[in-house]
Amino acid sequence: MSQRHVVQVFEQYQKARMQFVQTVADLANRPQNIELLQNAGVMSLLCPLMLDVVPSIQHTAALALGRLADNSEDLAEAVVKEDILPQLAHSLASQNRFYKKAAAFVLRAVAKHSPELSQAVVACRGVDALVLCLEEFDPGVKEAAAWALGNIARHNAALSQSVVDAGAVPLLVLSLLEPEMALKRIAASTLSDISKHTPELAQTVVDTGAIAHLAQMILSPDTKLKRQVFAALTQISKHSVSLAEMVIEAEIFPAAMSCLRDPDEYVKKNVVTLMREVVKHTPELAQVIVNCGGLEAVIDYLGNCHGNVRLPGIMMLGYVAAHSESLAMAVIVSKGVPQLALCLSEESEDHIKAATVWSVGQIGHHTPEHAKAVATANLLPKILELYMNASSSEDLQTKSKKALKSVLQKCTYLPSLEPLLYEAPSNILKHVVCQFSKVLPHDSRARRLFVTSGGLKKVQEIEAEPGSPLQEYINAINGCFPEEIVRYYSPGYSEALLERLDDYQPA
Amino acid sequence: DMAELLKIKREFEEFQKEYCCRNREAEENREKENQAATQIQSWFRGCKVRAYLSHLHKKAIIIQKIWRGFTARAHVRQMVKAAYFIMKMNFYEEMAVRIQRRWRGFFVRKHIHNFYARKKYMEGLVMKNELVRRELDQLEELQKRERDCLDMVKEHTAKVYQAQRLHHLLSTKQCPGVFNSPFRPAPHEMELLLRQVKYQAPTRLASRGKACLLGIPSSTSSSFPATLGSPLIKTSRTYSSRPILPPIGNKKQQVMMVKTLAIKDINK
């Protein structure tokens, strides 16, 4: 009789604990309850429940703790202070899979907020325990462990190094091959977080053969997976030429371009970012991408999307054109310049405009042919306007000035230079006049056009200090025309003629 | 005698005087004559020496003349050889320059910067771009169609499920159902679905949805593109691999039918 009574007391207590933990877990789902829970001192109550005898209470308590830490940084710091982490790490080795999932969830939630908290997780040997979890069979446990490792590695290079030193990378690559989609996504995202910091880390990831597996997953139908895969490949290839070459050797390129027509914006953005990182290293890599028709795909992409996501595409075109003049000509031939002009006029953000202006400068500065292509797209007045506009940012102004200068120094297409004569400030004007002084001595039709369109008149009106380069160019231009014409167009000529009339006595 | 003596004495005196005079004169002339003799001798000696010297000179001149001619001719021969050599070298160099010029022009134009290859490359690039764009368009089109197809299948499955659950709203001979209002020109599509769907007791097996697809007669499949063939094939496979227990509710069905009849009686 009394035995049953005693057992009943214990059962009631257990039910009460279970109910408490489950309610707290449900409440912790909503962010507005977090403050209230924290004030009610939930942390000190949950800690002993994590060491409870009954496994389901343990793992529900861990789940509740994880949700609390996920939503607020203070609670995460409190978790660290209460020294729960060593216990969690220790028990990760021994418990059942629900507990492991919940414990990995707590570690993930703590590590995601800041590098110091991640360091605390590393210090209590949480990383080794998580790597042990990666060897489990259950895909949910692996996913939670991989996600936690990703959150740790994301902050800085030292933390990534500690994750790699624990031997996580081969296990992550193995979990890439598992059939569950969520696990693949998380593994790809963790690999991208690890490899983004330094070339050595990226090399470690590549040495385990990750690139081949990532390359196979490009054609999968799942959108989020594709996002992560391309992000991972981007982070690997951005560090050095050899890594980028290894990524290219995996022959992703003709296939990756089909992903440029994916309906999801971020997939497209990640593909274009990958192309940009690859292209920026050497002309040969840029040549590979141009040869498989990458330019066309990127230009179509720029035409279809708007806003911030255009930035990697614009920068990619700039990097391709920067390497050599044949690549810049390839960009021009694929109709890149009208597209860039459209981007310049449609976008309103300064940094995107700065990037567009830089790309245009890279395309136009090689030879007069290139400068002509840029000039016929009517880009020079627009860039000048951006340079002169007081509301453009510093960066935009410097980039426009550099681009203008570099394009103008090669531009010999006079009809497009003439509008610049009227509006440019003196430091740009000197280049414009210099170009005129180079072309006019040799071309008589251009001289005629120059006179009839009012260019000569404007040149006479420019005031320059004698001896400055501007004055020399003006003299050179004046030297191409007969005296009478120069005098006719010089300012004040009509007054001088009228004065002569005053002194004239008819015979 | 005396006269002769006097004459001799006078002659002796005269002779003495003469002798003294002559000595005196000779003495006086001795210097002059000595000098004259010296001069004549020196002149003569000078002439001899001069003649000797000029002889020597002439011989020396002959020797020097021959020597200088010899040296100069040797020098000229050398110069001629050198000039000839230089002329030959210039000629060779000129020819070498011509060869190198042609070779360098050819090499640069063929291997370093081949203008026609570049032009062809640009044209090829344009064509490749066009090709890539068309292929990507086709791919996109294909993917879009697949996605649309999947969406349509999902929608249709949802509708069929709805029809399954609303089977009791089917119109009967006596009483038109909700979806078959007499004021409509033709029955609602739901009505048509209801007529076609075979009622099965709801079970929680996921294959139920696929099994009910089998229940639809093939008339609906004509409205679908051919890719629907694959889900149908799949369902037949799963159907055969996992035999589903027949619905227990045959009696229930009859009960349902009776109930609907009863309701309709009440409605009347």
TrEMBL record, chain A:
GO terms for molecular function: microtubule binding. InterPro entries: ARM-like, ARM-type_fold, Armadillo. Interacts with SPAG16 and SPAG17. It is found in: Cell projection, Cilium, Flagellum; Cytoplasm, Cytoskeleton, Cilium axoneme. GO terms for biological process: epithelial cilium movement involved in extracellular fluid movement; filopodium assembly; neuron projection extension; sperm axoneme assembly. Keywords: Cell projection, Cilium, Cilium biogenesis/degradation, Cytoplasm, Cytoskeleton, Flagellum, Microtubule, Repeat. Pfam families: Arm. The keyword Repeat applies. It comes from Oreochromis niloticus (Nile tilapia). Important for structural integrity of the central apparatus in the sperm tail and for flagellar motility. The keyword Cytoplasm applies. This is Sperm-associated antigen 6. The gene is SPAG6. GO terms for cellular component: acrosomal vesicle; axoneme; extracellular region; microtubule; sperm principal piece.
Automatic annotation (TrEMBL), chain B:
The gene is SPATA17. The keyword Repeat applies. Keywords: Repeat. PANTHER family: MYOSIN MOTOR DOMAIN-CONTAINING PROTEIN (PTHR22590). The keyword Ribosomal protein does not apply. InterPro entries: CellDiv_DevSignal_Domain, IQ_motif_EF-hand-BS, P-loop_NTPase. It comes from the Eukaryota. It holds the Pfam family IQ. SMART domains: IQ (SM00015). It comes from Oreochromis niloticus (Nile tilapia). This is Spermatogenesis associated 17.
